Amino acid sequence: MNIDSLKSDEQAILSLRSLYSRYGYLQYKMSKFEEYDLYVRNKDFLVSDNIITFTDTDGKLMALKPDVTLSIIKNTKDMPGCVHKVYYNENVYRVSKGTNSYKEIMQTGLECMGDIDDYCIYEMLMLASRSLDTISSDYVLDISHLDIVSAVIDSMEVSDKARRELLLCIGEKNIHGISDICQREAADAAELKKLVSTYGSPEKVIPMLESIECVKNSAALSSLKKITNLLSENGFGDKIRIDFSVINHMGYYNGFVFKGFINGVSSGILSGGQYDRLMHKMGRSSGAIGFAVYLDMLERLTKAEDAYDVDAVILYDDSSDLKALNDAVRLFTIDGRSVTVQKQVPEKIKYRQLLRLNERGVEIIENNA
Amino acid sequence: MKTMLNIALPKGRLGEKVYGMFEKAGFECPSIKENNRKLIFENPQKGVRYFWVKPSDVAIYVEHGAADIGIAGKDILLEYSPDVYELLDLDIGKCRMAVAAKHGFRDSTQKTLRVATKFTNITKDYYAKQGRDIDIIHLNGSIELAPILGLSDVIVDIVETGTTLKENNLEVIETIVPISARLIANKSGFKFKNDKIEELVCELSKQTEGKQ
């Protein structure tokens, strides 16, 4: 099969599947529907609370999946001492912000559930980097650690309302907003401002973290150092950035969270993190880490677009000889060119060559390239 | 080829003032001052490309990555919540989002408050926090007319000096939030044109610090 003839998202799926299976992740195939109840209980985990629902034949309220992770957790048992590694490639149904209507989105992702240790986290971040690299070598993986962000906010002793507002400002890199909130709360903003405004390679950011009192001796920092070091040693050093503006929902996520960007795509195309809190909410005692790649965004990656729909249009009529027509078509398809056989030129079609089959053979009527 | 930083400026006086700040920060583009009908202005030496857009559209250009950075009022950011970074308060274009009503208006909590506004989301959010039941009448302009004609009880709108209100026998009854112009950046653009954006933020913040 000629891989170049595939669309960029189809190519990505093929490469990602082979990447994930090489690291022992098993494909997790699931049905399109799930009981609505699962999503109601974990509404905040979802990107949007708009869900397509319908009543099943037995009267149960069902939903078209807006998310895959919840279904995987639901079907996973705790296995002490082990990790359960799966990948998926599924369609999810979400409301698109622009049109405010439902959209089918192709999503590929990885989940690793069980006794998560530094190796599992490293492997996940490494696979996130390699997933991005599969799509384009011009990528950046932003890594944050929510325990560090929490520690700094905790040390400021602010109200719950201010905490929520601060988290919003952190996500926007809104330093002036942080100053305003801290002024109102009579809290010291210096360390949080330092945390949010320092962005870049681990070599640049880690010394800053070591200067923050409540962070410098934390387990989170030591694990961040260990993992980013290993990533750098394995050739991902110039692609990873530590950026504390990556804030996932703290009610579900903890520890490492990350987001991947590709030059030319206007928003993040990979998003993931550790979600032990979600596991605990769903009655599991083990931890988990995973990420999803939003393949619908890849359409925006501008590859040289084909100027033509088809290489050739061959016109024939009712009197044309079938064998001659077939021979004419084979002339093109045999060396990989595309051809459409028509009685009339279809509207709006862009072709390189227009040909007509008549009793003398195939005649070129128009040549565009 | 040098990478170009795409900058969306809001059309009008505010945009011109902002361009002045960018020029001072070393990101000048002389062709922008030529009096013509061009839409895009480039200075390849400095690696900048400016374009004028409707102020309320700046955030859209930036969120979708057509512009790497732009200048938008906090009102627009609050109303549309675009997924962008808000890097700097430029401390210009200052005004406030406020609730205004006819002079001497008595707010009766017995009935649903009718609010006319262009800023539906800000209004909804503000009154939801107070647990107040409201009806929103969405208007696209001349908001001040609504309470005068009895279309609404109050309005939520931007108030700069308050002159228009005063001349129409209206007054501010509550301030919702102070507004000013903000430097916003596309999240992806910020990663790939980081050095240039950081340099710009640094230079601009020197100018705003002097003022604050």
Number of DSSP helices of chain B? 8
Residues in β-strands, percent of chain A: 25-35%
CATH superfamily of the largest domain in chain A: Bira Bifunctional Protein, Domain 2
Q: Segments of chain B where pLDDT lies below 50 for 5+ residues?
A: none
* Spatial order of the strands forming the largest sheet of chain A: 1-5-6-11-10-9-7-8
Principal-axis shape of chain B equals elongated
On the 0-100 scale, what is the average pLDDT of chain A? 89
Distance between the termini of chain A: 26 Å
Q: Say how many strands of chain A there are.
A: 15
* Biggest sheet architecture of chain A: 8 strands, mixed
- Rg for CA atoms of chain A: 26 Å
CATH fold title of the largest domain in chain A: BirA Bifunctional Protein, domain 2
The overall strand count of chain B is: 11
Number of domains of chain A: 2
Major sheet description of chain B = 6 strands, mixed
Low-confidence stretches of chain A: none
| Straight-line N-to-C gap of chain B | 39 Å
The SSE order of chain A reads HEEHEEHEEHEHHHHHHHEEEHEEHEEE
Largest interface: A-B, 20 and 17 residues
Layout of helices and strands:
The complex is a heterodimer of chains A (369) and B (212).
Chain A: H1 8-22, E1 26-27, E2 33-35, H2 36-41, E3 53-55, E4 61-64, H3 69-74, E5 83-95, E6 102-114, H4 118-135, E7 139-145, H5 146-156, H6 160-171, H7 175-185, H8 190-197, H9 202-210, H10 213-216, H11 219-236, E8 240-242, E9 254-262, E10 270-274, H12 276-281, E11 287-294, E12 310-315, H13 322-333, E13 339-342, E14 351-358, E15 361-367
Parallel strand pairs in A: 1-5, 7-8, 12-13, 12-14
Antiparallel strand pairs in A: 2-4, 3-4, 5-6, 6-11, 7-9, 9-10, 10-11, 14-15
Helix pairs in contact in A: 1-4, 4-11, 6-7, 9-11
Chain B: E1 5-10, H1 13-24, E2 40-43, E3 48-53, H2 58-63, E4 69-73, H3 74-80, E5 84-89, E6 95-102, E7 113-117, H4 120-130, E8 134-138, H5 145-148, E9 154-159, H6 163-167, E10 170-179, E11 181-186, H7 187-192, H8 194-211
Parallel strand pairs in B: 1-3, 1-4, 7-8, 7-9
Antiparallel strand pairs in B: 2-3, 4-11, 5-11, 6-9, 6-10
